[in-house]
Write a structure and sequence with these properties.
Chain A has 137 residues and is an alpha+beta fold. Chain A has helices at 91-110, 114-136; strands at residues 4-10, 13-20, 22-27, 30-35, 41-54, 57-72, 75-80, 83-85. Chain B has helices at 4-60, 68-71, 94-111, 123-133, 151-166, 201-207, 219-293, and strands at residues 78-84, 115-121, 137-141, 172-182, 185-194, 214-216. The chains are: A alpha+beta (137), B alpha/beta (294).
Chain lengths: 137, 294
């Protein structure tokens, strides 16, 4: 099967860079599977799990807390805000983060800047996704 | 002339100084390796981000209502300088050279009749600039208590800057930091953050026939989240480069100090031995002439 180069980078390191067959990205407007030869596009990601398929089997699952992906026919670059391989995602820490995010949302809601509230809401949703992913793993 | 006891004391004190500088050099070398690895690890993200931003930014920059973070407020009255220095001294000219660059910039801008605001990252720069420009310093950030500076720290600073921009706190924002060229040379550099520097027009033309991207969601929405991230990543990169540079500078400074201490010890030892010999000769002469007199 045709392969393409998948690169997954977070601000702190390069997590993945190799030829894969397919990847599933948690795009903002719904999950999106990418195969080799995909039309070029730039998508924003929400908190969710990136799945990687190689040699006919799912080999890797990573949780990302949001970010962007640049898709071109022979290469996919994911710029993740924060990426953790699922086995290393701890339920306790993600639940703590969720609690923090919810607290932050509660304080922001009082003020009236809609962008701020949106940003806090996005953080809560992404933390929720982390908890779900940790539970499933 | 100093007595033998004084000289012995001085030799000992210089010897312990040398021990300390040697240890500091070793610590700086170990930290430098770590800081360099961290800076290296951050590079791929920054590079990819730049690429996406270049293709996206040039498409949106000419539209009306483009985000402020990309095109600025259109004004040029108020400048915000973000000055990145170390939290600790004893690193040779490392902190002062950024401080001096910042001071020159502030003076030049104020001479043009512009208003200047300063945001310092790192204690040393804050101390240096406050002496002269205390009224211009709007915020200070310090990582002195942190073992390791993470991306979220840079993000917090970026958020402060973004908020200031929203409230119309400044028109132009630049970043002043020590660029890490190699272990012995750090170059104080100024980099513009807002409005975001875009590649020149001819680059866009060259990229034109290449892939036309689809965007999901719209270009504006992506840009609205991408730009603050880009700001954070630029800051993060500067902080990491500066921290690698700090350890490099300290290593060089401590290496010099160790060498100087060694030279000092040699000189003092020579002096000590000469004095000792002179004392012995003097005593001998006294004994001999005493014996002759009898």
């Amino acid at each position: 099967m045709a392969t393409f180069l998948l690169e997954l980078v977070s601000p702190e390191k390069l997590l993945l860079s190799r030829q894969v067959e397919m990847t599933t990205l948690p795009a903002i407007e719904g999950e999106m599977g990418v195969l080799a030869g995909h039309a070029p596009m730039i998508v924003a990601l929400k908190g969710g799990v990136i799945r990687v398929r190689e040699n006919g089997a799912e080999t890797e699952k990573l949780f990302v807390a949001g970010g962007f992906a640049e898709v071109s026919p022979e290469r996919v670059t994911v710029l993740a805000d924060e990426a953790t391989p699922l086995p290393q995602l701890s339920r306790a820490t993600s639940e703590r983060k969720l609690a923090e995010a919810e607290a932050a949302l509660a304080t922001v809601a009082a003020t009236d800047a809609p962008e701020k509230r949106d940003a806090a809401l996005v953080r809560v949703l992404s933390a929720k996704a982390a908890v779900d992913a940790a539970e499933a793993a | 002339m100093a007595s033998l006891k004084d000289l012995r004391g001085r030799i000992n004190s210089v010897k312990s100084t040398r021990k300390i500088t040697q240890a500091m050099k070793m610590v700086a070398a170990a930290k430098l390796r770590r800081a360099q690895a961290q800076a290296e690890a951050a590079r791929p993200y920054a590079e990819r981000m730049e690429k996406i931003l270049a293709s996206l930014g040039s498409a949106v920059a000419n539209m009306p209502g483009a985000p402020r973070m990309l095109v600025g407020t259109g004004g040029d009255k108020v400048h915000l300088l973000v000055v990145v220095t170390a939290d600790r001294g004893l690193a040779g000219p490392f902190n002062t050279q950024v401080g001096r660059l910042a001071r020159a910039r502030v003076r030049a801008l104020e001479a043009e009749g512009k208003q200047v605001k300063i945001l310092t990252v790192g204690r040393k720069g804050a101390a240096f600039l406050k002496r002269e420009f205390a009224s211009r310093v709007v915020a200070e950030v310090s990582y002195a208590t942190k073992k390791r500076v993470g991306f979220e720290d840079a993000e917090a600073v970026a958020l402060t800057i973004a908020e200031m921009l929203d409230q119309g706190g400044f028109d132009v924002c630049s970043l002043l930091y020590n660029r890490f060229r190699n272990v012995i040379s750090q170059i104080p550099t100024e980099q513009r953050l807002i409005p975001a520097p875009l590649p020149e027009g001819n680059v866009t033309a060259a990229a034109g026939p290449q892939a036309q991207y689809e965007y999901e969601p719209t270009e504006e929405e992506i840009l609205a989240t991408l730009l603050p991230r880009n700001l954070a990543i630029q800051l993060y990169r500067a902080i990491l480069e500066s921290s690698a540079g700090e350890h490099g500078a300290r290593m060089t400074a401590m290496d010099n100090a160790t060498r100087n201490a060694g030279e000092m010890i040699n000189k003092l030892t020579l002096n000590y031995n000469r004095t000792r010999q002179a004392n012995i000769t003097k005593e001998l002469i006294e004994i001999i002439s005493g014996a002759e007199a009898v």
